[in-house]
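Batch manifest, entry 17 of 40.
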Amino acid sequence: MHQPAVCRFAVVRTAFGPILLALAILLHAASATRAEEVDLALVLAVDVSYSMDEDEQRLQRLGYINAITSPQVLQAIAAGLTGKIALAYVEWGGTISQHTLVDWQVISDRASAEQFASDLARASQQRVFRTSISGGLFYSANMLNRLPHTALRKVIDISGDGPNNQGAPVHSARDEIVATGVSINGLPLMLKRATSGWYDIENLDAYYTQCVIGGPGSFVIPVRDITAFAEAVRMKLVLEIAGLTPPAADGAPDTNIPAALPPVRNAAFDPDFCLIGERLWLERMRDREWD
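Output type: structure tokens
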């Protein structure tokens, strides 16, 4: 006896009901994470090498958490053309020590900022050996390459407390990345310690200026005391989101950011100076051989 067509349809619909429901859920999830246009795609690339102690690293992490949710940063985001930025947080050390702690998230209001901060606060803290700023930059550039959104500007915000001593020369990495239209800003940590290590250099801010940063509107904000870190990060985020540079000598922000890429290397560029970290490492290894 043939089953009526209407009954056959009901059976098929019942059998495939769970599948259709699952597809609907997947389609809804895909639409919720669809590409968006944002004013800025920003990678926060944070040094977690052993040269910083655990207390300094905790204060560093807390500085980013507080800055991301600060009223000043939220106001800067809201003032943009789209009122949104895409943000990711990575930690780096040696050439094989880069990790994404918080992947790309769109920040548009306090709720989304607090979600990002909460995800960052839950991430485990780690410390790694060596310092490859170039490795951190390349890893951050790859993060931007797989950005699921359309960004008007792309910036890598890299912090560190020492010069590059592993991997590609940092100025070569900088040149390659800036040539793709990405700007690199620096947050050199020139912290006050009771004793200086063999790896410390006094003019880390000059090193970052000559060898690390580049691209339209790029700048350096040095941190000379860990207690000032949170304020430095907040200021840096506001400037990056607004597309400004730090105040000029007369106290007025410099908003004249060139549309085309400026020369990557400034007038004071010295490739020998940019290899100071590699030389210090080699000297340290030779000294250990004689111990």
